Amino acid sequence: MKTTDSLTFKSGYSEVNGLKMYYEIYGYGKPLVLIHGGGSTIQTSFGRVIPLLAKSRQVIAVELQAHGRTSDRNADLSFEQDADDVAALLKNLNIDKADFFGFSNGGTTTLQIAIRHPEITGKIILGSALSKRNGVPSAFWNFMKQASLDQMPGQLKLAYIEVAPDTNGLQIMHDRDAKRMVNFTDIPDEKIKSIKAPALIIIGDKDVITPEHAIEMHRMIGGSQLAIIPGVHGEYIGEITTLKQEFKEADLVVGMIEKFLD
């Protein structure tokens, strides 16, 4: 058991499809799996919401291939592989079914979990998830083609260096994430429409993801709910690059998430 800011948690590594996959477990109750964004760690995406969510749930937070404390494999990243890795981790932890909350790239991974592993999927929260290339402004793709490590937010670089066993992996993580986005292809409509899990779609009104894209996904996933929250990409969960001096827990969407998961 470890303690951070008086919050007790268990952490460990699991052998998953050739990876040493890092995870943390907080709290007790029904399992809720948190899946971070690109270039991120558990703490940079979810550090502000974990203490609140763990009051009523068993929170299982993971770090995906090449991110944070998880090892790399000699293969490009894909959202499908990330989904399969998370499913394998849950099997190793003897968890038959869970709810999932994915942010940004983690939201796209959560879509793939619901598509590829419906039997383990309870409810899903898609935070700023991308399913089509037209879901972001075209300038995003031009930026990704020229992405370099020096453009990566300093908070994310520092967070990686603080936890990674080998800090040389920072460049690898950056390059794998950038390549995955450059090569991103649309998730077919029929696969999105096949999702039967209850879904809550959340974006910021100044998000990277366009409101039109979130609405399109909302219409494709039967019975889903949609929330457009004031703020930028990840501000609604206090993602580390969005934090301001006047940050207040009351501005986070935890209450909405808990109501949806109830």
From TrEMBL:
Molecular function GO terms recorded: serine hydrolase activity
Keywords: Hydrolase
Keyword Hydrolase: yes
Pfam families: Abhydrolase_1 (PF00561)
Domain AB hydrolase-1: 30-169
Superkingdom of this protein's organism: Bacteria
Name of the protein described by the UniProt record: Alpha/beta hydrolase
